[in-house]
Amino acid sequence: MTTLYGVVAEFESAADIYHAAEKVTAEGYTRVDSHTPFPVHGIEKALRHGPSHLGWIVIVMGALGIGGAQLMMYWMNAYDYPVVVAGKRPYDWPTTVPITFECMVLLSAFGAVFGMFGLNKLPRLNHPLFSHSSFHRFSDDRFFLSIEATDPKFDRARTVQFLQGIGAHNIELVED
After folding, report:
1. Which of 80, 74, 63 is nearest to 96 (CA)?
2. What is the pLDDT of residues 2-17, one digit of tens each?
3. Distances (CA, A) of 10 to 57, 132, 138
4. pTM, full prediction
5. Is the pLDDT of residue 104 over 70?
6. CA distance readout (Å), 142 to 64, 87, 127
């Protein structure tokens, strides 16, 4: 069973897609994304995309790395196998700094990679947008704007008509 994913519209230039993005969000659409061959300055603001949550994931994972490393080394050195060397205490936090740093970096990196996968809903080997007749050109020389069918304002006929009115061409409904 196929369901409607949304509508995809093609634009000729970066300026065209930027102005279209402003008009689409001004009209009230919220589930909108752009697909361009190169970064278009300011388009995320025009589409009203908020800041990424990836930074918070990385910070939390880094803090877990610090806390986990300190707890691990405290347990190992003070309780599990305490060894007194040169009359020093079994657990002395300055000696744990290199391992703590490495654990923080390791968990932060895992948080960044797997957080990016999760936030981008990856891996997805085949996306519905790939069925658009000329979407393969988005990485070459075309600019596309997609509006998902889950958008509260989405209506098949009115959305297509609106996109035609703002200068889009090659507008297609895409099935999932």
Report:
1. 74
2. 799 999 999 999 999 9
3. 34, 10, 9
4. 0.79
5. yes
6. 43, 71, 18
